[in-house]
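Quick one, probably user error.
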């Protein structure tokens, strides 16, 4: 079964949507932390979270609240901007965003 067919199932859409959003947040957080030349432990201390929570979040395994995400980006002195992109490569060819 291909991903487009799987996304017809509402439960699969939820799982896929959550997973991709967590990965996007993790990638943005790692990039911002590295631009500031900080370790995970240093950022965790600055933001008042445990190193274990920080590691889970950056790996995409954590399930952070918006408050937690906002606090981490604020500790880095940056804000997070959200943009959308096609979910599937076929959508990109059609120009759907």
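Nope, works fine. Designed sequence:
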């Amino acid at each position: 079964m291909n991903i487009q067919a799987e996304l017809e199932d509402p439960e699969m859409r939820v799982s896929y949507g959550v997973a991709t959003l967590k990965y996007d947040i993790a990638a943005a957080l790692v990039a911002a932390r590295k631009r500031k030349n900080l370790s995970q432990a240093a950022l965790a201390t600055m933001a008042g979270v445990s190193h274990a929570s920080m590691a889970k979040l950056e790996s995409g395994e954590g399930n952070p609240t918006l408050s937690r995400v906002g606090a981490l980006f604020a500790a880095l002195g940056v804000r997070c901007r959200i943009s959308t992109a096609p979910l599937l490569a076929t959508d990109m060819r059609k120009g759907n965003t």
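Residues 25 and 69 are 8 Å apart (CA to CA).
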